[in-house]
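thought: user wants a sequence for this fold. calling inverse folding tool.
action: design(structure=
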């Protein structure tokens, strides 16, 4: 049973930190008014937080009659979180401060050795990112890793990740925890991208959204009521297995889904080769289409038609406020412009479709949002049932400037 005095203290601390996090710079009087706590209680808590290095004074209120009040905000650099986007070809690592601002980032090719070698690479890359920017390792408190697969809560193994060999045979988060000595959370990369887009661009505006990623594979992240939907086994959003496009009853469709077989990277390059006898990678196919190549246009129109069907299937079940198209292929404006009219041709109502704003940093943003929430809870709400501290996102423009 929880100590009631400790529970009350944690609730009070949590509410004060939430107020400062959300509305800082803010005065003690404003915190008291916002939380309903007494000015004395708020003053004691803020003094304690300031003494421990979590909040700092940043000036005084302006424009008020009488004595101006001191205002406080969270100390951004008091602690850091790591957000990692693990892909089949690249792994990106970003270190972010308590405001969500990226303070350091590194990217390198993903090791092809697989399994524990991938764990070692991520651990090393996080530490090298810190070292190369003169950041103390001890500042990093939580890490979130996005993986192109389905993490199993029971075993820690990452299933359905054909592009990262061997990760289905190791306890991924446990090994990373041992490597780094901090809390490590592992989440599907498309789920993180959905959270990232919601957190930074649509929070409170469009709390029911779907992020559809099209690249080497195809998958969706679903956010309903501002919360990520994982499903009973964590595999919600595996839309690559929607049963159309290729024959869903063929054996190959159990490994690479029927929809994915006709709409992702391999499908685009293969279809163009079938039509022309020429090998082109995906960017070259897009370039050819822009240059007027009729075969390239046909390939992209076919992909757009299948993606439109997927969007309609999703919208028929979920009715999202918008569908965000992302991924290395999906984020191309040329493809999005082809998808929209195809949707209108086969669905009776409008489905708002928009390209990803965050691009290849959407998953990093989602990982940052989860890591910051977990860190705030660990620091200021430990033992409080159902505790949650919502961290406001940095401004999108500033965020993208920091990571590019």
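)
observation: tool returned 404 residues.
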């Amino acid at each position: 049973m929880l100590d009631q005095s400790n529970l009350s203290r944690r609730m009070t601390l949590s509410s004060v930190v939430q107020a400062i996090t959300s509305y800082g710079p803010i005065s003690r009087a404003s915190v008291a008014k916002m939380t309903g706590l007494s000015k004395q209680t708020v003053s004691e808590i803020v003094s304690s937080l300031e003494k421990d290095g979590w909040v700092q004074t940043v000036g005084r209120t302006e424009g008020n009659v009488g004595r101006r009040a001191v205002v406080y905000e969270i100390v951004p650099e008091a602690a850091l979180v790591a957000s990692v986007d693990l892909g089949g070809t690249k792994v990106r690592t970003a270190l972010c401060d308590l405001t969500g601002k990226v303070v350091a980032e590194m990217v390198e090719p993903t090791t092809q050795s697989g399994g524990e070698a991938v764990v070692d690479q991520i651990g090393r890359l996080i530490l090298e990112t810190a070292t190369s920017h003169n950041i103390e390792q001890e500042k990093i408190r939580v890490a979130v890793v996005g993986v192109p697969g389905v993490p199993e809560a029971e075993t820690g193994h990452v299933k359905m990740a054909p592009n990262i060999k061997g990760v289905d045979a190791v306890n991924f988060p446990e090994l990373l925890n041992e490597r780094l000595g901090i809390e490590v959370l592992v989440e599907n990369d498309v789920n993180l991208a959905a959270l990232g887009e919601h957190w930074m661009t649509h929070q409170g505006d469009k709390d029911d959204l779907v992020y559809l990623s099209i690249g080497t594979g195809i998958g969706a992240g679903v956010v309903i009521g501002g919360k990520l939907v994982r499903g009973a086994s964590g595999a919600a959003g595996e839309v690559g297995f929607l049963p159309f496009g290729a024959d869903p009853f063929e054996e190959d469709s159990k490994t690479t889904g029927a929809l994915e077989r006709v709409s992702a990277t391999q499908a685009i390059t293969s279809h163009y080769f079938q039509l022309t006898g020429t090998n082109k990678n995906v960017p070259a196919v897009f370039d050819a289409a822009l240059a007027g190549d009729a075969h390239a246009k046909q390939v992209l129109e076919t992909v757009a038609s299948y993606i439109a069907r997927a969007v309609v299937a999703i919208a028929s079940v979920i009715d999202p406020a918008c569908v965000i198209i992302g991924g290395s292929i999906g984020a191309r404006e040329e493809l999005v412009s082809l998808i929209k009219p195809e949707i209108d041709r086969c669905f009776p109502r409008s489905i708002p479709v928009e390209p990803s704003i965050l691009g290849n940093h959407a998953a990093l943003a989602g990982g940052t949002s989860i890591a910051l929430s977990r860190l705030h809870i660990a620091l200021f709400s430990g033992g409080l049932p159902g505790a949650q501290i919502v961290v406001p996102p940095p401004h999108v423009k500033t965020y993208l400037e920091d990571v590019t």
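thought: summarizing for user.
answer: Here is the designed sequence. The chain has three domains: 4-74, 77-193+361-385, 201-358.
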